[in-house]
Write a structure and sequence with these properties.
- The complex is a heterodimer.
- Chain A is mostly helical.
- Chain A has one domain (about 1-115, about 135-295): Orthogonal Bundle (ABC transporter involved in vitamin B12 uptake, BtuC), CATH 1.10.3470.
- In chain A, about 70% of the residues lie in helices and about 0% in strands.
- Chain A has twelve helices and no strands.
- Chain A has helices spanning about 1-30, 40-55, 60-85, 90-110, 135, 140-160, 160-170, 170-175, 180-210, 220-230, 235-255, 265-285.
- In chain A, helix 2 runs antiparallel to helix 3.
- The termini of chain A are far apart.
- Chain B is mainly α.
- Chain B has a domain at about 70-295.
- Chain B is globular, with a radius of gyration of 22 Å.
- Chain B starts with a strand and ends with a strand.
- The chains are: A mainly alpha, B mainly alpha.
Amino acid sequence: MTDFFLAWLTVLPGYVLPLLLASLGVVLSERAGVLNLCPEGFMAVGAMTGALICLAGQGPWLGVLGGTAAGLGLSAVFGLAVVVFRVEQTLAGLATVALGLGITGVLGRSHVQKPFDGVPRLSETSWGAELPRVLGQQTLMLPLALLLLLLVAWFLTRSAAGLRLRAVGEDPGAADVAGVDVQIVQLGAVLTSGAFGGLAGAYLSVASAHVWVEGMVAGRGWVVIALVIFARWRPLRCLAAALLFGGTEALMPRLQALGVDFPVYLGAMLPYVLTLAVLALTSTRRGARSGAPAALGLSYLRQDKH
Amino acid sequence: MLDGALLVRRQRVPLRLSAASYFGGLLFGLALAALILVQLGVPTAALWQEFVVQTFLTSQGLGQTVTAMIPLVLVGLGTALALRVQFWNIGIEGQLWLGAMAATWVSILDLGPEPLRLPLILALSMLAGALWIALPLALKLLWDVSEVISTLLLGSIAFFWVQHQLFGAWRDGKTGFPTSPTLDAAERLPLLGWGQVHAGLWLALAAVLLAAMVIGVTRLGFYARAVGANRRAARAAGLPVLMTVAVFVLGSGALCGLAGAVIVTGTEFRLSQSIGAGYLFSGIIIAYLARSNPLAVLVVSFLLGGLYTAGGVLKVFYGISEAMVLLVQGVVLLSVLCAQLFADYRVVARRPA
C-alpha cells in the first residue's frame, strides 16, 4: 500500500502541475473581469512551440520559455479582441482556441511523435542523484510551479496592483473613477494568463511527455475552466481542485500497473465525470456563481454609462 | 491609454453599416487566411482554383461540398437554436457522438424489422442527442451551473465512451481496427446519384424549413425571441420561459445527435474515432455568422462545406494538415467579431487637449 501510494505520489505532479499553472492564469484573467475560455488554445501552442524548440536543439529551458512566449502571443490576439474591440468574451475565447489548435495542427504536422530530451529529472542532475525516488523523479518545474502559485496568491490578496486588478473585475466603473486604467489592467491580466497557459502546455511536452503529438492537450484546457469555478477563483484552492482532477487521472495508470482490471477509457472518463459532479454538488449548496467576480464577462466602456 | 479614440455606442445601428462591418470583417478575415495559406506554400494562383473552381464550380467538387454541408447544417442549426434562448451549447460534439453511437447500436443489434431500421436509427439518434444535453440543461435551470462548462465536459465524456466501445465490444472483428463493423445496406441513407450526396440532404433542408417556421411564425418562436432578448422581462410578462428554453435546447441536442447519425449512415457507414472532430467550432462559427437565422445557416454551411472540400484537397496536394480548416475558421470568426465594433460604436477621434 505504501509502495502504491509512493508510486502515485511520484507521478502526481505530472498530472497536477499543468492544470494548476493554467488555472492560475485563468484566475488572474477572470478576477480582472475577462471570461477566459482560451486555456485549451494557449496550452496547445505552448506545447508545440516548446517541443519545436527542443527538437531544434535549443535545450529544454529555452523550450519552456518559448512555449510561455507562444501562449503570451496567442493571448495578445484574444486580449486585442476582448479589451480593445469589445468582442463578446465567450465567442472570442472559442475563436482563440480554434486559432491555437489550427496553428499547432498546421505548423507542427512534420514534428509529430519525435522524441527529444526534455527538462531533466532531479535524479539526472549532478547534485540530485542521491534524492529519494519520489523527489528524484521530479523536475525543477515542481518548485517553479509552487512558487508561481504563492506569487499569484500573494499578488491578488496582498499587493496594491492585485487590489486594483480585483477592483476592475468587481466594478470596472468604480475602478475607473478611482484612477485605474481598466483596459491596461485587463490586457495585462489576459497576457499573463496566456503566459501561464503556454507554460502549462510546455510542461506537457517538454517536462512531461518529451514528445509532441497533435491534440496532446486533450481537453485539459476545458477542465481548467471548470476547476477555476469550483476553486471559487482563489489561487490556493486551484491547487486543491487540480489535485482532485490530476490525482484521479494519475490513479488510473497506477491501478493498471497493479494489475487491477478495469476498462481503460472508462477510467480516463472518471476525472471528467468527477469534475462535473463536484461542480454540480458545490453549486447545489452555494450557487454556482458564488465567488465569481461581479463584472465577469462584461465589456467595459466608460462612455456606456451615460 | 487604449482609448486614444473615443467610442460612442450607437443608439440604432443602420442596416447598411451592420452589413458593411460584417462583410468587411469577412473579407478581411478571408484575405488574412489566404495570406496564411500562401505563406504555407500554396501558390497564389491555386487559391482561386482550389477554393472556388474545384469546390463550387465543378459537378464533382460541388457534390463533395454539398455532402460536407449536410452535417454542418444540422450542427449549425443546433447551435443557433440554443443561442436563440441564450444557451451556449458547446457540447455539440458530445451530442453528435451520442447520436452516432445510437445509430451504431441499432445497427449492431439489428433492432426492428429492416424497412423500419433507418427511421429507428434517426429517431433514436435524436433522442440520444437530446438526452445528452438534458443534463446540462437541468443543471443550469436548477442550480445555475454554467452550461459552457457542463456541455464541454460532457463532450469529453462522450468521446471517451466512444473509444470505450470502439476498443471493446464494437471493434470490427474482421479488420481489428478500432471502428465498428460496416452498416448493412438497409441501414444506409440512400445516395441521390450525385457524387456522395445522400438523402440526409432532405433531412437537413427539412430541419432548416421547420426551424425557420417555428422561429418565424409560431407562438413558440415569438416566446424565444422574448426570452432571448430579456429572460426576466419575459418571465415577468408571464411567458412560459422554462418550456421555451427546454424545447429549444432539447431541439438543439436532437439536431446535433441527428448530425452524428447522418454522418454514420450517410457517408462513413461505420463509427470511428475521427468522424466527430471539428464540428464544435464549425457549429459555433455557423451559428454566429448566420446570426442564428435558419436560412442563413444553410448559406454559411454551404460555404463552410466548400472550405472542408478544399481542406481535403490541400491535404493531398500540398501536404497541409486538415487543421488548416480550423485555423481559417478561427481567423475569419475573430475578424468578423472585431469588425462588429465599427457597427456598434461610432469611433470619434479625440482632439488633443
